[in-house]
From TrEMBL:
Keywords (A to Z) from UniProt: ATP-binding, Isoprene biosynthesis, Kinase, Nucleotide-binding, Transferase
GO BP term, example: terpenoid biosynthetic process
Domain spans labelled GHMP kinase C-terminal: 223-297
Listed pathway(s): Isoprenoid biosynthesis; isopentenyl diphosphate biosynthesis via DXP pathway; isopentenyl diphosphate from 1-deoxy-D-xylulose 5-phosphate: step 3/6
This protein's name: 4-diphosphocytidyl-2-C-methyl-D-erythritol kinase
Amino acid sequence: MTEAWGPDDDEPRPHRGPVKVRVPAKINLHLAVGPLRPDGYHELNTVYHAISLFDELTARRGDTLTLTMEGEGTGELELDESNLIIRAARALAARGRVPAYARLHLRKSIPLAGGLAGGSADAAATLIACDLLWGLGLSREELAEVGAQLGSDIPFLLHGGTALGTGHGEAVSPILARPTTWHWVVAIADGGLSTPAVYRELDRLRATDRPAPPVPLGGPDQLMAAMRQRDPEILGAALGNDLQAAALSLRPQLADVLKAGHEAGAIAGIVSGSGPTCVFLAADAAHAQEVAAELTAAKVCRAAVTARGPQPGARVI
Ligand code: C5P
């Protein structure tokens, strides 16, 4: 068996630890959902965007694999073998042919089952942290291959920024645009929504006599053209999400959140991914603060926080 790290000084070596990794949440600026595939996934054409709502994962050396956590979702999130962090660590250890030994600790801010890919973010952070801790030296592409087997959004969260996602979301290509910072308000809901349930609801709506109206937008191409113009009004008009009708069907109260954001003066608002988080575009940082304050006062969501995008993907800090 080849050693995962060799005697050569240029070869990656195990890290003494701790290794701390910060990872952002994602929103989808545009999410076009195609038909259900035989493998149970839907074909996607999406524009991913990483925003400044972060989880932090710390990996320390250990003689077994353990996971502890603090923050958002503590006591709710299972920390056993079903947790995506543990599954990511085991998949990486198998790929690198090393024992899956680490003490992992998660500091969570991204809400559970919120449509912000928090679970995938944590798995992406685990891949980066354990790769360094175990001295595997895998490339980001190799880590993305391991991640794609576990969650559709993991390759994007390794990557970050703004990127086009195809396949079931796992095939990511960066969007080369002049860097522009966009200002968002994130309305966090009470309780989550199950992603598979939202996709099933979309299929059900599409199979009925009166299917949900398709998103009346030009798709990812129009979205990317809008981004290049660096004008929030133009970007706002191009935002769209095919899963929104399904999320609203399962959680009708989300209509109140979207309405409140509109009344608070947001440029545009959509459900994030499969929801129930809603995100609103603001003109600048001060405007985002105002919209967040009004949304909080409207009492339509658990919390309304400001965020900026794009952000880098999972990175050692
Ligand atoms: O890949 P991820 O774990 O995020 O997917 C969770 C579930 O969401 C899948 O098992 C599937 O039911 C649904 N999904 C889908 N099409 C996609 C992505 C997810 O139907 N492109």
